[in-house]
Amino acid sequence: MERLMQFRKAFAEPGRPRVFSASANHGTESSPHPADQYVGRQIAAVRVQSDVSQAQLARSIGISFQQLQKYENAKNRVSASMLYEIASSLAVPVSRFFGGLPGNETDRDVPTLPVDERINFIASAEGRRLIEGLVQLHPRVRSRVSALISALGEELAVVDPKQESVASAGPNPDERRFVRCFLFEGRECSFHHSLVV
């Protein structure tokens, strides 16, 4: 009833901006609802799995890629009709964006499409920043950065969890690694790092 009164009051006063809030904190800016964040991440994940860029998807549904970014980052809520357009463009059911959302379980066992954790990372803001940074690098530097990341990933994959307490006590001389990278200006830099898990 209170919201109805606010609605009527907003229209009754001429010249007053018509701002409506569905949150309990009326008049204050709040963070996005977790469900909006989840749906936004799912849109990004399905888009990346489908190998579709933000610009391509935005064009196919008639919005700017900036607006699509806002949907994916939950800066703006996605309307039901827009969610339908996105799902149609990506050739997935609308329910795909809600699968795995807490409280969205059904009585029957419906298999959900597996989402690779790499896809979720790529779809995240951090993943997009990393990719944008890598794309801006000179190809030679990019391949060396890729090799470095792969080498670090391989080392971390073989670390014994039982030695975690030893590693946290301080760097072990056996863990010291020498890394050399070549910058695209032709300068060489060298540095040491210790792998501590």
Can you describe this structure?
Among the domains are: 30-105, lambda repressor-like DNA-binding domains (434 Repressor (Amino-terminal Domain), Orthogonal Bundle), CATH 1.10.260.40; 137-194, no CATH class. Helices cover 50% and strands 7% of the residues. A two-stranded antiparallel ribbon has the order 1-2. It has 197 residues and is mainly alpha-helical. It has nine helices and two strands. Helix 3 (54-61) packs across helix 4 (65-72). Strand 1 and strand 2 (188-194) form a beta hairpin. The longest helix has 19 residues, at 139-157.
Low-confidence stretches: 3-8, 10-28, 165-197
The radius of gyration over CA amounts to 24 Å
Oligomer: single chain
Global shape? globular
Head-to-tail CA distance between termini: 55 Å
- The portion of residues assigned to helices is 40-55%
Major β-sheet strand ordering: 1-2
- CATH homologous superfamily of the domain at 30-105, by name? lambda repressor-like DNA-binding domains
- The total strand number stands at 2
Reading off the top of the CATH hierarchy, the class of the domain at 30-105 is best stated as Mainly Alpha
> Which structural class best describes the helix and strand composition?
mainly alpha
Q: Topology as H/E string?
A: HHHHHHHHHEE
> Mean pLDDT, nearest integer?
72
CATH architecture of the domain at 30-105: Orthogonal Bundle
Q: Under CATH, the topology of the domain at 30-105 is which?
A: 434 Repressor (Amino-terminal Domain)
Strand content: 5-15%
How is the main sheet built? Answer: 2 strands, antiparallel
Number of helices: 9
